[in-house]
Specification:
Helix content is 45%, strand content 16%. It is α/β, with parallel strands linked by helices and 404 residues long. It folds into 2 domains: 197 residues, Glycogen Phosphorylase B (Rossmann fold, 3-Layer(aba) Sandwich), CATH 3.40.50.2000; 189 residues, 3-Layer(aba) Sandwich (Rossmann fold). The strands form 2 sheets. The chain has a 7-stranded parallel sheet, sandwiched between helices. It has a 6-stranded parallel sheet with strand order 10-9-8-11-12-13, sandwiched between helices. α8 crosses α13. The chain starts with a strand and ends with a helix.
Length: 404
Protein backbone atom coordinates (compact mmCIF):
# COMPACT_ATOMS: atom_id res chain seq x y z
CA UNK A 1 0.00 0.00 0.00
CA UNK A 2 1.25 3.48 -0.90
CA UNK A 3 0.25 6.11 1.65
CA UNK A 4 0.70 9.86 1.20
CA UNK A 5 1.01 11.69 4.53
CA UNK A 6 0.25 15.41 4.28
CA UNK A 7 1.60 17.67 7.03
CA UNK A 8 2.61 21.25 7.59
CA UNK A 9 5.49 20.28 9.88
CA UNK A 10 8.26 17.75 9.45
CA UNK A 11 11.79 17.73 10.89
CA UNK A 12 13.71 19.89 11.23
CA UNK A 13 10.74 22.30 11.17
CA UNK A 14 8.58 21.02 14.03
CA UNK A 15 7.01 23.31 16.61
CA UNK A 16 3.92 21.51 17.89
CA UNK A 17 2.40 18.18 18.83
CA UNK A 18 0.99 17.50 15.35
CA UNK A 19 4.46 17.75 13.83
CA UNK A 20 5.90 15.39 16.43
CA UNK A 21 3.03 12.99 15.74
CA UNK A 22 3.72 12.83 11.99
CA UNK A 23 7.47 12.53 12.53
CA UNK A 24 7.17 9.35 14.59
CA UNK A 25 4.07 7.91 12.94
CA UNK A 26 5.70 8.07 9.51
CA UNK A 27 8.81 6.31 10.81
CA UNK A 28 6.79 3.44 12.29
CA UNK A 29 4.34 3.17 9.38
CA UNK A 30 7.26 2.89 6.96
CA UNK A 31 7.92 -0.55 8.44
CA UNK A 32 4.61 -1.87 7.06
CA UNK A 33 3.55 0.40 4.16
CA UNK A 34 5.15 2.56 1.49
CA UNK A 35 5.06 6.03 3.09
CA UNK A 36 5.53 9.30 1.21
CA UNK A 37 5.51 12.48 3.33
CA UNK A 38 4.47 15.77 1.74
CA UNK A 39 5.20 18.83 3.90
CA UNK A 40 5.51 22.60 3.87
CA UNK A 41 8.79 24.44 3.50
CA UNK A 42 12.25 23.73 2.17
CA UNK A 43 13.43 20.34 0.85
CA UNK A 44 14.22 17.74 3.51
CA UNK A 45 17.00 15.18 3.60
CA UNK A 46 14.71 12.43 4.93
CA UNK A 47 14.12 9.52 2.56
CA UNK A 48 10.47 9.55 3.69
CA UNK A 49 9.83 13.00 2.20
CA UNK A 50 8.48 12.87 -1.34
CA UNK A 51 7.92 16.61 -1.60
CA UNK A 52 8.25 19.89 0.29
CA UNK A 53 6.35 22.94 -0.94
CA UNK A 54 6.52 26.69 -0.48
CA UNK A 55 3.49 28.96 -0.83
CA UNK A 56 3.10 30.93 -4.03
CA UNK A 57 5.42 33.89 -3.72
CA UNK A 58 2.85 36.44 -4.87
CA UNK A 59 0.63 35.88 -1.82
CA UNK A 60 0.91 37.86 1.45
CA UNK A 61 2.73 36.10 4.27
CA UNK A 62 0.62 37.24 7.22
CA UNK A 63 -2.98 37.16 8.43
CA UNK A 64 -5.57 36.11 5.87
CA UNK A 65 -2.87 36.12 3.21
CA UNK A 66 -1.02 33.35 5.01
CA UNK A 67 -4.12 31.16 4.71
CA UNK A 68 -4.22 31.76 0.96
CA UNK A 69 -0.58 30.65 0.91
CA UNK A 70 -1.58 27.50 2.76
CA UNK A 71 -4.22 26.77 0.13
CA UNK A 72 -1.63 27.17 -2.61
CA UNK A 73 0.49 24.50 -0.93
CA UNK A 74 -2.58 22.26 -0.67
CA UNK A 75 -3.07 22.52 -4.43
CA UNK A 76 0.52 21.44 -5.01
CA UNK A 77 0.16 18.53 -2.60
CA UNK A 78 -3.06 17.32 -4.22
CA UNK A 79 -1.36 17.18 -7.60
CA UNK A 80 1.78 15.52 -6.24
CA UNK A 81 0.19 12.49 -4.58
CA UNK A 82 -0.84 10.84 -7.86
CA UNK A 83 -0.19 7.11 -7.59
CA UNK A 84 -0.93 6.86 -3.85
CA UNK A 85 -3.51 4.33 -2.65
CA UNK A 86 -4.60 6.46 0.30
CA UNK A 87 -4.02 10.04 1.50
CA UNK A 88 -3.80 10.94 5.20
CA UNK A 89 -3.89 14.63 6.17
CA UNK A 90 -3.02 16.27 9.48
CA UNK A 91 -4.48 19.60 10.71
CA UNK A 92 -6.46 22.12 8.68
CA UNK A 93 -3.23 23.19 6.97
CA UNK A 94 -3.34 20.06 4.79
CA UNK A 95 -6.95 18.89 5.13
CA UNK A 96 -8.00 20.60 1.90
CA UNK A 97 -5.03 19.04 0.07
CA UNK A 98 -6.20 15.62 1.23
CA UNK A 99 -9.79 16.31 0.20
CA UNK A 100 -8.75 17.49 -3.26
CA UNK A 101 -6.49 14.45 -3.65
CA UNK A 102 -9.46 12.20 -2.82
CA UNK A 103 -11.54 13.84 -5.54
CA UNK A 104 -8.73 14.14 -8.08
CA UNK A 105 -7.25 10.67 -7.79
CA UNK A 106 -10.24 8.67 -6.53
CA UNK A 107 -8.47 7.47 -3.38
CA UNK A 108 -9.71 7.33 0.23
CA UNK A 109 -8.90 10.21 2.55
CA UNK A 110 -8.16 9.77 6.26
CA UNK A 111 -8.04 12.87 8.47
CA UNK A 112 -6.32 13.01 11.85
CA UNK A 113 -8.00 15.68 13.94
CA UNK A 114 -5.40 17.15 16.31
CA UNK A 115 -7.64 20.13 17.17
CA UNK A 116 -10.82 21.73 15.86
CA UNK A 117 -11.07 25.26 14.48
CA UNK A 118 -14.56 25.95 15.97
CA UNK A 119 -13.08 25.29 19.42
CA UNK A 120 -10.14 27.67 18.88
CA UNK A 121 -11.80 31.09 18.45
CA UNK A 122 -8.59 32.85 19.51
CA UNK A 123 -7.08 31.79 16.16
CA UNK A 124 -9.00 34.69 14.65
CA UNK A 125 -6.46 36.97 16.36
CA UNK A 126 -3.71 35.28 14.37
CA UNK A 127 -5.44 34.65 11.05
CA UNK A 128 -7.98 37.48 10.85
CA UNK A 129 -10.53 36.79 8.12
CA UNK A 130 -8.42 33.77 7.20
CA UNK A 131 -9.94 32.00 10.23
CA UNK A 132 -13.13 31.59 8.20
CA UNK A 133 -11.10 29.92 5.46
CA UNK A 134 -9.25 27.60 7.86
CA UNK A 135 -12.60 26.60 9.38
CA UNK A 136 -14.04 25.93 5.91
CA UNK A 137 -11.05 23.76 4.96
CA UNK A 138 -11.42 21.66 8.08
CA UNK A 139 -15.19 21.27 7.82
CA UNK A 140 -15.09 20.35 4.13
CA UNK A 141 -12.41 17.70 4.63
CA UNK A 142 -13.78 16.15 7.83
CA UNK A 143 -17.34 15.88 6.56
CA UNK A 144 -16.21 14.15 3.35
CA UNK A 145 -13.39 12.00 4.80
CA UNK A 146 -13.58 8.23 4.62
CA UNK A 147 -12.41 8.10 8.24
CA UNK A 148 -11.52 10.59 10.96
CA UNK A 149 -8.90 9.76 13.57
CA UNK A 150 -9.42 11.56 16.87
CA UNK A 151 -6.42 11.67 19.21
CA UNK A 152 -8.63 11.17 22.28
CA UNK A 153 -12.13 10.08 23.18
CA UNK A 154 -12.83 13.67 24.16
CA UNK A 155 -11.76 14.80 20.70
CA UNK A 156 -14.02 12.17 19.09
CA UNK A 157 -16.99 13.64 20.94
CA UNK A 158 -15.96 17.14 19.90
CA UNK A 159 -15.75 16.13 16.22
CA UNK A 160 -19.31 14.84 16.20
CA UNK A 161 -20.58 17.83 18.18
CA UNK A 162 -18.84 20.37 15.93
CA UNK A 163 -19.73 18.58 12.71
CA UNK A 164 -23.07 16.75 13.11
CA UNK A 165 -22.90 15.56 9.49
CA UNK A 166 -20.10 13.17 10.55
CA UNK A 167 -21.45 9.79 11.60
CA UNK A 168 -19.93 8.65 14.92
CA UNK A 169 -18.88 5.31 13.40
CA UNK A 170 -16.57 7.17 10.99
CA UNK A 171 -14.59 8.59 13.95
CA UNK A 172 -11.85 6.36 15.40
CA UNK A 173 -9.84 7.07 18.55
CA UNK A 174 -6.10 6.49 18.16
CA UNK A 175 -3.99 8.25 20.78
CA UNK A 176 -0.77 10.11 20.20
CA UNK A 177 2.44 8.31 21.12
CA UNK A 178 6.03 8.80 22.15
CA UNK A 179 9.47 7.27 21.70
CA UNK A 180 10.18 6.06 25.24
CA UNK A 181 13.82 5.37 24.39
CA UNK A 182 14.42 8.96 23.36
CA UNK A 183 12.26 10.45 26.13
CA UNK A 184 13.78 9.35 29.45
CA UNK A 185 15.45 10.95 32.45
CA UNK A 186 18.59 12.92 31.61
CA UNK A 187 20.74 13.60 34.70
CA UNK A 188 22.90 16.20 32.93
CA UNK A 189 22.77 19.89 33.85
CA UNK A 190 24.49 21.69 30.98
CA UNK A 191 21.17 22.99 29.61
CA UNK A 192 20.17 24.25 33.04
CA UNK A 193 23.51 26.01 33.34
CA UNK A 194 23.14 27.56 29.89
CA UNK A 195 19.65 28.85 30.71
CA UNK A 196 20.63 30.23 34.12
CA UNK A 197 18.56 27.69 36.09
CA UNK A 198 19.69 26.71 39.58
CA UNK A 199 19.60 22.88 39.87
CA UNK A 200 19.44 23.20 43.67
CA UNK A 201 16.07 24.98 43.61
CA UNK A 202 12.83 23.19 42.63
CA UNK A 203 11.79 23.86 39.04
CA UNK A 204 8.21 24.49 37.97
CA UNK A 205 8.36 24.00 34.19
CA UNK A 206 6.10 25.11 31.33
CA UNK A 207 6.75 24.15 27.71
CA UNK A 208 4.48 25.44 24.95
CA UNK A 209 3.63 28.12 22.45
CA UNK A 210 2.75 31.64 23.53
CA UNK A 211 -0.96 31.36 22.88
CA UNK A 212 -4.05 31.74 25.02
CA UNK A 213 -4.87 28.08 24.32
CA UNK A 214 -1.87 26.94 26.40
CA UNK A 215 -2.90 28.97 29.44
CA UNK A 216 0.41 30.76 29.89
CA UNK A 217 -1.41 33.81 31.26
CA UNK A 218 -2.98 31.68 33.99
CA UNK A 219 0.42 30.29 34.94
CA UNK A 220 1.81 33.81 35.28
CA UNK A 221 -1.14 34.66 37.55
CA UNK A 222 -0.48 31.52 39.59
CA UNK A 223 3.25 32.21 39.87
CA UNK A 224 2.66 34.90 42.48
CA UNK A 225 1.10 32.22 44.70
CA UNK A 226 3.83 29.60 44.35
CA UNK A 227 6.27 28.72 47.10
CA UNK A 228 9.07 31.34 47.06
CA UNK A 229 11.84 28.76 46.79
CA UNK A 230 10.50 27.51 43.43
CA UNK A 231 11.87 28.62 40.10
CA UNK A 232 9.37 29.26 37.31
CA UNK A 233 10.90 28.20 33.99
CA UNK A 234 9.01 29.06 30.80
CA UNK A 235 10.09 27.42 27.54
CA UNK A 236 7.62 29.49 25.59
CA UNK A 237 8.30 30.32 21.97
CA UNK A 238 6.45 31.05 18.73
CA UNK A 239 3.75 33.54 19.85
CA UNK A 240 0.48 33.42 17.92
CA UNK A 241 0.63 37.16 17.36
CA UNK A 242 3.08 39.98 18.03
CA UNK A 243 0.56 41.48 20.44
CA UNK A 244 0.36 38.44 22.72
CA UNK A 245 4.13 38.06 22.47
CA UNK A 246 4.63 41.62 23.76
CA UNK A 247 1.98 41.16 26.44
CA UNK A 248 3.67 38.07 27.84
CA UNK A 249 7.12 39.64 27.67
CA UNK A 250 5.86 42.53 29.78
CA UNK A 251 4.15 40.23 32.27
CA UNK A 252 7.24 38.04 32.64
CA UNK A 253 9.42 41.12 33.16
CA UNK A 254 7.06 42.31 35.91
CA UNK A 255 7.09 38.86 37.53
CA UNK A 256 10.90 38.85 37.47
CA UNK A 257 10.84 42.04 39.50
CA UNK A 258 8.51 40.46 42.06
CA UNK A 259 10.26 37.12 42.62
CA UNK A 260 13.59 35.47 41.87
CA UNK A 261 14.12 32.43 39.69
CA UNK A 262 11.84 33.38 36.80
CA UNK A 263 13.46 32.17 33.57
CA UNK A 264 11.98 32.61 30.09
CA UNK A 265 13.67 30.73 27.26
CA UNK A 266 11.99 32.41 24.29
CA UNK A 267 13.79 30.44 21.59
CA UNK A 268 12.55 27.01 20.55
CA UNK A 269 14.89 24.67 22.39
CA UNK A 270 16.07 21.48 20.72
CA UNK A 271 14.40 18.26 21.87
CA UNK A 272 17.36 16.99 23.95
CA UNK A 273 17.41 20.31 25.82
CA UNK A 274 13.69 20.09 26.60
CA UNK A 275 14.12 16.48 27.75
CA UNK A 276 16.82 17.56 30.21
CA UNK A 277 14.63 20.35 31.59
CA UNK A 278 11.69 17.95 32.00
CA UNK A 279 13.98 15.48 33.74
CA UNK A 280 14.83 18.07 36.39
CA UNK A 281 11.34 19.51 36.85
CA UNK A 282 9.93 19.25 40.35
CA UNK A 283 6.57 19.88 38.69
CA UNK A 284 5.60 20.08 35.03
CA UNK A 285 2.65 22.41 34.47
CA UNK A 286 0.11 22.30 31.63
CA UNK A 287 -2.58 24.96 32.26
CA UNK A 288 -4.19 24.67 28.79
CA UNK A 289 -7.77 25.80 28.27
CA UNK A 290 -8.08 23.56 25.19
CA UNK A 291 -6.05 20.41 24.62
CA UNK A 292 -7.47 17.58 22.47
CA UNK A 293 -4.74 15.23 23.69
CA UNK A 294 -1.81 17.01 25.32
CA UNK A 295 1.24 15.17 23.99
CA UNK A 296 3.48 17.47 26.00
CA UNK A 297 2.22 15.79 29.18
CA UNK A 298 3.17 12.36 27.84
CA UNK A 299 6.66 13.69 27.08
CA UNK A 300 7.04 15.09 30.60
CA UNK A 301 5.76 11.87 32.17
CA UNK A 302 8.23 9.84 30.10
CA UNK A 303 11.00 11.91 31.67
CA UNK A 304 9.70 11.14 35.15
CA UNK A 305 8.19 14.56 35.88
CA UNK A 306 5.00 14.75 37.97
CA UNK A 307 2.37 16.70 36.04
CA UNK A 308 -0.13 19.32 37.16
CA UNK A 309 -2.58 19.92 34.32
CA UNK A 310 -5.98 21.41 33.66
CA UNK A 311 -8.77 18.86 33.37
CA UNK A 312 -9.73 19.66 29.78
CA UNK A 313 -10.08 17.70 26.55
CA UNK A 314 -7.98 14.57 26.35
CA UNK A 315 -5.69 15.40 29.28
CA UNK A 316 -7.59 13.17 31.78
CA UNK A 317 -7.00 10.26 29.37
CA UNK A 318 -3.27 10.84 29.80
CA UNK A 319 -2.80 12.18 33.34
CA UNK A 320 -4.50 9.95 35.92
CA UNK A 321 -5.41 12.24 38.81
CA UNK A 322 -3.63 11.21 41.99
CA UNK A 323 -1.65 8.46 40.23
CA UNK A 324 0.57 10.11 37.61
CA UNK A 325 -0.16 13.74 38.39
CA UNK A 326 -2.78 16.16 39.67
CA UNK A 327 -5.63 17.64 37.64
CA UNK A 328 -7.01 21.14 38.07
CA UNK A 329 -10.78 21.62 37.59
CA UNK A 330 -11.65 23.88 34.67
CA UNK A 331 -14.92 25.58 33.79
CA UNK A 332 -15.14 27.60 30.58
CA UNK A 333 -16.75 31.02 30.55
CA UNK A 334 -19.35 29.98 28.00
CA UNK A 335 -18.88 33.20 26.01
CA UNK A 336 -17.26 31.46 23.04
CA UNK A 337 -13.69 32.46 23.89
CA UNK A 338 -12.79 29.30 25.81
CA UNK A 339 -11.44 31.40 28.69
CA UNK A 340 -11.96 30.23 32.30
CA UNK A 341 -15.21 31.35 33.92
CA UNK A 342 -13.32 32.40 37.05
CA UNK A 343 -9.68 33.16 36.07
CA UNK A 344 -8.60 33.97 39.63
CA UNK A 345 -10.00 30.70 40.98
CA UNK A 346 -8.41 28.70 38.17
CA UNK A 347 -5.01 30.30 38.86
CA UNK A 348 -5.36 29.72 42.61
CA UNK A 349 -6.31 26.07 42.10
CA UNK A 350 -3.35 25.61 39.75
CA UNK A 351 -0.96 27.14 42.29
CA UNK A 352 -2.45 24.97 45.04
CA UNK A 353 -1.79 21.74 43.14
CA UNK A 354 1.75 22.80 42.28
CA UNK A 355 2.49 23.79 45.88
CA UNK A 356 1.12 20.45 47.08
CA UNK A 357 3.83 18.64 45.11
CA UNK A 358 6.54 21.14 46.05
CA UNK A 359 5.73 20.54 49.72
CA UNK A 360 5.69 16.74 49.33
CA UNK A 361 8.69 15.61 47.24
CA UNK A 362 7.99 11.94 48.04
CA UNK A 363 4.51 12.22 46.50
CA UNK A 364 5.95 14.04 43.51
CA UNK A 365 8.50 11.27 43.03
CA UNK A 366 5.85 8.55 43.20
CA UNK A 367 3.68 10.33 40.66
CA UNK A 368 6.65 10.84 38.36
CA UNK A 369 7.65 7.17 38.50
CA UNK A 370 4.06 6.06 37.87
CA UNK A 371 3.80 8.47 34.95
CA UNK A 372 6.84 6.92 33.29
CA UNK A 373 5.35 3.44 33.68
CA UNK A 374 2.02 4.55 32.20
CA UNK A 375 3.70 6.03 29.14
CA UNK A 376 5.73 2.88 28.46
CA UNK A 377 2.63 0.68 28.79
CA UNK A 378 0.10 2.74 26.82
CA UNK A 379 1.68 5.23 24.42
CA UNK A 380 4.27 3.48 22.24
CA UNK A 381 4.44 4.53 18.56
CA UNK A 382 4.66 0.94 17.37
CA UNK A 383 1.22 0.18 18.80
CA UNK A 384 -0.24 3.39 17.36
CA UNK A 385 1.17 2.64 13.90
CA UNK A 386 -0.41 -0.82 14.02
CA UNK A 387 -3.82 0.66 14.83
CA UNK A 388 -3.43 3.24 12.05
CA UNK A 389 -2.44 0.57 9.52
CA UNK A 390 -5.49 -1.53 10.47
CA UNK A 391 -7.70 1.51 9.86
CA UNK A 392 -6.11 2.06 6.44
CA UNK A 393 -6.88 -1.53 5.48
CA UNK A 394 -10.47 -1.23 6.73
CA UNK A 395 -11.03 2.02 4.83
CA UNK A 396 -9.64 0.59 1.58
CA UNK A 397 -11.71 -2.56 2.02
CA UNK A 398 -14.89 -0.61 2.61
CA UNK A 399 -14.22 1.60 -0.38
CA UNK A 400 -13.50 -1.37 -2.61
CA UNK A 401 -16.82 -2.91 -1.62
CA UNK A 402 -18.75 0.08 -2.89
CA UNK A 403 -20.27 -0.06 -6.36
CA UNK A 404 -18.36 1.91 -8.98
Amino acid sequence: MKVALLTREFPPEVYGGAGVHVEYLSRELARVVDVAVHCFGAPRASSLVAGAYEAWGTLPAAGAGSVLGTLSVDLRMAAAVAGADLVHSHTWYTNLGGHLAKLLHGIPHVVTSHSLEPLRPWKADQLGAGYRLSSWCERTAIEAADAVIAVSASMARDVVAAYPAVLPERVHVIHNGIDTVEYHRDPGTEVLDRCGIDPQRPIVLFVGRVTRQKGIGTLLDAAALLAPEAQVVLCAGAPDTEAIGREMQERVAQLQQERSGVVWAEEMLARPAVIQLMSHAAVFVCPSIYEPFGLINVEAMACGAPVVASSVGGIPEVVVDGETGLLVPFEASGDGTGAPRDPARFAADLAGRVNQLLEDPDLARRLGDAGRRRVVEHFSWAAIARETHRLYEAVRGARGARPA
